Amino acid sequence: MNYPILSLTLLIPVIGAILILFMKNSTLIKSTALVFALLDFFVSLPLWFLFDKNSHSMQFVEVYPWIPFINARYAVGVDGISVLFVLLSTLITVICVSVSWKAIDKKVKEFFIMILLMETSMIGVFVSLDLLLFYAFWEAMLIPMFLLIGVWGGPNRVYASIKFVLFTFAGSVLMLVSILVLYFAGGHTFNILELSKLNLPLNMQIFLFIAFTLAFAVKVPMFPLHTWLPDAHTEAPTAGSVILAGVLLKLGAYGFLRFSMPFFPEATMMFLSLLQVLSLVAIVYGAFVTLKQTDLKRLIAYSSVSHMGFVTLGLFTLTQIGMLGGILQMINHGIVTGALFCLVGMIYERTHTRQISDYGGLKPALPIFILFYTFFTLAAIGLPGTNSFMGEFLILCGAFLRFIPLGAFAVLGIILGTTYMIWLYYRVAYGNLNEKIKNLIYDLGPREILTLIPLLLLVLYIGFQPGVFTSYMQASVSNLIATKFNSTLLAHTLPLVGWIR
Amino acid sequence: MMTFKIIAPELFLIACSIFIFLSALFIRNRKTFSILAILGLLITGVWKYSLHGSGFNSSFSVEPFGVLGSWIIILIAIYVILISVDDLEIPDSSYGEFLTLILTSVVGMLFMLGARDLIVLYLGLETLSLSLYILCSFYKRSPLSSEAGLKYYLMGTVATAILLYGIALIYGATGTTNFYEIARSMSVTRVLADPMLIAGIIAVIITFSFKTSVIPFHAWTPDTYQGAPTPITAFLATAPKTALLLAFGNFFVGSLVPIWVEPKTALIVLSILTMVGGNLLALSQKSVKRLLAFSSVSHVGYMLLGIIVGTSDGLNAILTYLIAYAIMNLGAFGVVFMLKNGDDMDTYNGLAKRYPYLAGIMMIFMFSLAGIPPTVGFIAKFQLFLAAVNGGLTSLVIVAVLMTITSAFYYLRIVMNMYMKEPTVETEVISSDFTKGLVLSLSILVIVLGTLPSIFIH
Q1: Domain that holds residue A172
Q2: Which Gene Ontology BP annotations are present (chain A) (predicted)?
Q3: What is the Cα–Cα distance from A349 to B167, expressed in whole angstroms?
Q4: Given CB 3.0 to 4.6 Å as the disulfide criterion, which of A244, A392, A462, B285 pairs with B291?
């Protein structure tokens, strides 16, 4: 299999979008979108099999001159940190197309064009090895997401979409200035690999670190920059929420790993405590706010704040085990929260209400729905045997290794997480069936079941075989810690990592 | 006689315009004359391309840089003629005058681009301005259009008078009006403290600021842009800005470098005012043409960064920016022109429902103006900011990028009206298929140049 996998993965959705532009029939449009999403998934699948797990260097690299005048290149490649996210993105897109099959009834053409363009820009962020290319994909993502929320969203969609754009845009423009400064500091290059070998003076590192981290912290989102997320999640159409939870939030955390840490290691060490504390605040504060929510989607949105707090905590422990857990938990959160948003979207399609108080007693009425709902609730809680358990466990190990109180506080988040998920489950599944929705509900159809099955299988696969997934990341993460940070904590964690294999 | 060779293309264009003016008195055929004018412009462009050198005691020169600028202006003029040929609502009897004025303004701009002497610069600017005054008031019966022309004229003549005064003062201080001679005399005698020279330079900066609508000299801009016929507004927003920024850029970089600190400070203040003011004033506009007027003000603010850098690198970045700026503004004004009541913000409500393709095209222009990839607007901004950071203007670039957040808000407002609101006002597309095709091709150009910028960045 000797073809440019990454370029094809980037190109296929664009081709699909261009074809859809000339179509009129909405069934044809949907089928085309599904075919191209599936095609893209299968094209990206060889990454899983051909990736060399023992190497920490970039693989599947393709380099072409792009703007020779300023030495910007079209350079793509994946390493252990990014390879799984490419696969996650292509999978999530298939899910999104499938879940929108009936939910979208106006401007169908534009919708599926936007979903496909979204896919390209998300993957582009993960695979770019050139800062300018990365920034172009990073910003280009705003356009489809802005329209996805603003055109096909809920009642308050316009407010939510403009808030999303202004937050993310404001966060990332300073990153643009930093990229320019880096370009000259690194000797006129945008090459990410060369720039990460630089040893910049500390005061410059601090300035650049703040600018980069601000952009990523908005995207994650870290407390206190999270306020756009509940609005965007709540108002977005189901597919938009799934993309947001599944991939978009991971871009910020990925940015920390790819840019903030390797480019500015000393500045990272300086801000480490602050970032750890902010992660803890996000975990605990997010969980408490989640408890108070009365809107299904808003509840899951706030739980994302809490869960992403775990992710960033794992990354900022700067221990191998914590970072592996963080990356694994990014994937887990994408799958589980994505699935929960799918489920909420499916039930919303029937009842057109998101108020938790309108539900209740779904357990006898919708057996198949409740089966999936129970499963993904347990996965979100982190029941042993599901994927989130492994992720959270590794993160906690890292946190305890770094500084015991960190871990102690984070455990609080797990208890609260169980509380809100179980309480939500109780309110939705048990009790009396609400009269308002009694005649509206019917159980999941084959398309909906088929949409959820791959996510369910992945939850179990990661839950029972986490070592398969961590083995992809291990070489790259070890290399990052060993070359950029104090490597004493690395040695500590090796036996543990050996255990999960 | 040999020196006339260097301005032969301009002379040819003057001949063309006189020919069209005279024959239009007898024959009234819009298509024929448009084709003639376009041919004349193209020949002028090719002719200029083949020339190289300077003449008239090195007060006029043709260099690759200026030729590229000339080509931008010529292509803008051709585009404006093409969208006007079927759709500009003026009587056939005055269409010849319209073409003549476009051509004479192009002549003025070509002279400005080649000017290496303040007198030549002044002559070019005056030729350009006089043509524009008349073009702005071309809708004879519309009070708005007359106001546009009159306002532009009254304020513009004062500005050119100030320029003439400034030239006289500079001549008094240095004994010359040639760019290079000025630079040499300043580096030899260090006449920095000479109040006469300072007053002269201030006068030149004021005129430049006025003509490119730099805040606080922008007051004429919104009224003129709104009142003028839309194709003329498109022309006014793009071509003269190209000529002015490049020509005055030549003067600033070419002759003021020995005493660059003071003019630089003045320009920094002006650029901050323009970036901040232009973007904030655009926020609350109800008229799309006024909104685009203030947006063009803010874009000039960004472009000033390239002049402040004070090197030919900066000017090259401006040239790139101007190409992008021309494409997206011509496109956006083209869409405004295509719609009935296109100036009214409410016209765009729910446009995506009625004309999905047109809304998509407008959206591309808006995202490009906001500088979001993968559009040409992003590449241009990037290129310009790169040059500015290289010139040590990092803090100014921070101001600029912060203001682009504000600008995203008002550009997205149009997108929001088109995609997220229900139609409220009756509207229809009133242009010919030819105009539609032109605007569509500009939107494709925005994306193509945005993804493959090496086509136009040298």
Answers
A1: 5-500
A2: ATP synthesis coupled electron transport; electron transport coupled proton transport
A3: 73
A4: B285
Return the domain boundaries, chain B: 273-458
**Chain B residues touching A157 at Cβ < 8 A:** 420
Kindly give, in sequence order, each residue whose CB lies less than 8 Å from that of residue B91, ignoring residues fewer than 6 positions away.
Answer: none
| Contact across the interface for A177 and B405, Cβ inside 8 Å | no
pLDDT of residue A495: 47
CB of A143 within 8 Å of any CB in chain B?
Answer: yes
Residue B261: exposed, middle, or buried by beta-carbon count in 10 A (0-12, 13-18, 19+)?
A: exposed
CB burial of residue B99 (10 Å; 0-12, 13-18, 19+):
buried
d(CA B454, CA A74) in angstroms, rounded, equals: 12
B341: left (phi over 0), alpha (psi -120 to 50) or beta: left
Contact between A351 and A441 under an 8 Å Cβ cutoff? The reply is: yes
How many independent structural domains does chain A possess? 1
Residue A61 burial by Cβ neighbours in a 10 Å radius (0-12, 13-18, 19+): middle
Sign of CA dihedral B22, B24, B26, B32: positive
Confidence at residue B244, expressed as pLDDT on a 0 to 100 scale: 93
Across chain A, which has 501 residues, the per-10-residue mean pLDDT values are 82 92 88 92 89 85 86 88 91 91 84 92 92 92 90 86 90 89 87 84 89 91 88 89 90 91 88 90 91 89 91 89 90 92 89 84 84 91 87 88 85 89 88 79 86 91 86 85 68 49 46
Q: Which of A11-20, A457-466, B86-95, B265-274 has the lowest mean pLDDT?
A: B86-95
Mutate which: B275, B349, B454, vs A, most A CBs within 10 A? B454
Are residues A431 and A360 in contact, defined by beta-carbon separation less than 8 angstroms?
yes
Angle in degrees, CA B243, B249, B250, rounded to 5: 95
In this complex, the residue of A140, A146, A180 whose CB is nearest that of residue B397 is A180
- The owner of tokens 């075989």 is A465
Which residue stretches of A225-366 are H helix?
228-235, 238-243, 249-255, 261-263, 265-292, 296-316, 320-351, 362-365
Report ipTM (2 d.p.). Answer: 0.88
